[in-house]
Amino acid sequence: MTVEDYNTCVDLHSDGIYRFALKHLRDTDTAKDVVQESFARLWVKVEEVEAAKAKSYLFTTAHHVMVDNVRKGSRSARMEEHHEDLRHTSQEAPDLKQVLEAGLATLPDIQRSVVLLRDLEGYNYDEIAEITGLNLPQVKVYIYRGRTALKEYIGKLELVL
């Protein structure tokens, strides 16, 4: 891959990786760090990665960086997350986007990743299997289970009304 190819990758894929990381992590600063770390790792291997496979490499790297961040973050808890209910004093109708994000937050990390890759980023099953390191039947099962869990979560009337 040449420097021009690398710069083209930054232009083409940085927004997609950021959206993927933001939906998964729900933190803008951490999502930006994931994008930066993904491109830094690509730069280190710029001679080894083919330009045609750069997108797959970037999303795979972003997935691994997010998994590492989640593992690090599970050792410490933010106080804001534990006291979120105290910040909201009025009972207004929830936004469907907020309900969907809350539903995604209930999914295990791997299910959330594959659902976001499929439904938000538009990857096919084979590409998701390559990015996540899962086999094709596992990808299909995780997507099915994730969508089913989201459907059940969103289907609760008290969340939508």
Topology:
Layout: H1 3-25, H2 28-44, H3 54-73, H4 79-82, H5 84-87, H6 96-106, H7 109-120, H8 125-132, H9 136-154, H10 157-160
Describe the structure.
There is one protein chain. The chain is an all-alpha fold and 161 residues long. It has two domains: 1-89, Rna Polymerase Sigma Factor, Chain: A (Orthogonal Bundle), CATH 1.10.1740; 91-161, Arc Repressor Mutant, subunit A (Orthogonal Bundle). It is 76% helix and 0% strand. The chain contains ten helices and no strands. The chain has helices at 3-25, 28-44, 54-73, 79-82, 84-87, 96-106, 109-120, 125-132, 136-154, 157-160. α2 crosses α3. The chain is globular, with a radius of gyration of 17 Å. The model has no long low-confidence stretch (mean pLDDT 81).
Sum up the structure in keywords.
Arc Repressor Mutant, subunit A; globular; mainly alpha; 0% strand; 161 residues; Rna Polymerase Sigma Factor, Chain: A; 2 domains
In DSSP terms (H or I, runs of 4 or more residues), the helix count works out at 10
N→C terminal distance:
52 Å
Largest sheet: number of strands, sense, barrel closure? none
Instruction: Please tell me the total number of domains.
Output: 2
CATH level 3 topology of the largest domain: Rna Polymerase Sigma Factor, Chain: A
The CATH class label of the largest domain is Mainly Alpha
The radius of gyration over CA amounts to: 17 Å
Which CATH architecture of the largest domain would you pick?
Orthogonal Bundle
* Stretches with pLDDT under 50, minimum 5 residues: none
The CATH homologous superfamily of the largest domain corresponds to RNA polymerase sigma factor, region 2, helix turn helix motif
Written as H for each helix and E for each strand, in order along the chain, the element string is HHHHHHHHHH
Mean pLDDT: 81
Q: What overall geometry do the principal axes of the alpha carbons give? A: globular
Helix content: over 70%
Structural class: mainly alpha
Q: How many beta-strand segments?
A: 0
Proportion of strand residues = under 5%
